[in-house]
């Protein structure tokens, strides 16, 4: 019998969060970002749950787009990293995938392939990861026109570096750069809005927004949790309490003896660890919950287990389910304790944790 460590996925909460993104998108249409296996929630079930709501999906790479087709869905799929080989353009044309071209090499592949998938161009507005510099954009478009594929150019995208910080001026600066760069090409669509941009007052989202983490209930904003932004948690990570004991005052628990009981303390062991994707750097005082009561981790997280202080839940017994994050404890809270972000936690849950959908 398998252990009862499980990630419970609330697909109705996912749909509510998508509709919340729509309500914040102004006149923009909303493509659902389902890359990284649906942010760890399962790309097939996530995309299927949004079928009928999302007119377009966005992924990082071709294999993720193919997974959407394997789920039986026919929406257009945007490939945010474009293609990784020239031969992938044939798959894009056949599959109805829209690669985002960001380099001269990708344009050369398009030129040599003879294939004509619909595609986007990425503008480097200041993040300096991928994209064409605004100065080079006119020559790139002219080259596409000479190739006879400018009719397949859907529009332009960029990505914000600091939209999570409402006090930063960089998002406004990037928006201005993007507007100037794309102004000569009227009639083409534009897409700039990550999750965080949905929460910036007066931020234009143009034709298509691209929410990711907010669909899954995680916060895209510095200093805010998902629930504080009106987002519903989608994943509840749960594992069984498999042992309890009283640790006498002065004794330690776990590797390195990093936590020492200052009094006789009832503790429990939970069947989850960093081998399941729970963050190893979540140390003592990281919150968890059992039977609706908040408790805390103690000591170091092991590969397959972690320890919790049961003082606040005296009724807890072996076999009870411990919530590591979900309805009672937010994933953003755990991420803050582990020195990371909810994106990493959600995408890091490993394959040995069963996903259960409702």
TrEMBL record:
One of its GO terms (biological process) is D-alanine biosynthetic process. The modification N6-(pyridoxal phosphate)lysine is found at residue 35. Catalyzes the interconversion of L-alanine and D-alanine. May also act on other amino acids. Its EC number is 5.1.1.1. Belongs to the alanine racemase family. The keyword Cell wall biogenesis/degradation does not apply. GO terms for cellular component: cytosol. Residues 234-358 form the Alanine racemase C-terminal domain. It catalyses: L-alanine = D-alanine. This is Alanine racemase. Pfam families: Ala_racemase_C, Ala_racemase_N. One of its GO terms (molecular function) is alanine racemase activity. It comes from Marinobacter subterrani. PROSITE patterns: ALANINE_RACEMASE. Pathway: Amino-acid biosynthesis; D-alanine biosynthesis; D-alanine from L-alanine: step 1/1. Gene3D superfamilies: Alanine racemase (3.20.20.10), Lyase, Ornithine Decarboxylase, Chain A, domain 1 (2.40.37.10). The active site is at 35 (proton acceptor), 255 (proton acceptor). It comes from the Bacteria. The keyword Nucleotide-binding does not apply. Substrate binds at residues 129, 303.
């Amino acid at each position: 019998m398998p252990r009862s460590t499980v990630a419970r996925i609330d697909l109705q909460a996912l749909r509510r969060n998508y509709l919340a993104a729509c309500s914040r998108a102004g006149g923009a249409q909303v493509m659902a970002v389902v890359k990284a296996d649906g942010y760890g929630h399962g790309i097939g079930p996530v995309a299927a749950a949004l079928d009928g709501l999302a007119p377009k999906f966005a992924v990082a790479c071709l294999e993720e787009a193919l997974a959407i087709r394997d789920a039986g869905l026919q929406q257009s799929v945007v490939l945010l990293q474009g293609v990784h080989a020239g031969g992938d353009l044939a798959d894009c044309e056949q599959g109805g995938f829209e690669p985002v071209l960001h380099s001269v090499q990708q344009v050369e592949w398009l030129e040599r392939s003879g294939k004509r998938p619909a595609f986007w161009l990425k503008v480097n507005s200041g993040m300096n990861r991928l994209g064409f510099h605004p100065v080079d954009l006119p020559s790139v478009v002219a080259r596409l026109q000479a190739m006879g594929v400018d009719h397949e150019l859907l529009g332009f995208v960029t990505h914000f570096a600091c939209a999570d910080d409402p006090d930063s001026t960089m998002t406004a600066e990037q928006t201005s750069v993007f507007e100037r760069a794309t102004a000569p090409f009227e009639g083409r669509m534009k897409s700039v809005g990550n999750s965080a941009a949905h929460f910036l007052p007066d931020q234009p989202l143009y034709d298509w927004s691209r929410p990711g983490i907010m669909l899954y209930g995680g916060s895209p904003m510095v200093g805010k949790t998902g629930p504080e932004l009106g987002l519903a948690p989608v994943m509840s990570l749960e594992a069984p309490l498999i042992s309890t004991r009283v640790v006498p005052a002065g004794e330690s628990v776990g590797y390195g003896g990093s936590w020492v009981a200052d009094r006789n303390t009832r503790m429990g062991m939970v069947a989850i660890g960093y081998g399941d994707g729970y963050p190893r750097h979540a140390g003592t005082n990281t919150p968890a919950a059992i039977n609706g009561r908040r408790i805390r981790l103690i000591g170091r997280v092991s590969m397959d287990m972690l320890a919790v202080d049961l003082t606040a839940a005296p009724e807890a017994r072996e076999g009870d389910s411990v919530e590591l994050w979900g309805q009672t404890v937010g994933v953003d809270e755990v991420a803050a304790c582990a020195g990371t972000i909810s994106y990493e936690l959600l995408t890091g849950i490993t394959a040995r944790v069963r996903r259960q959908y409702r």
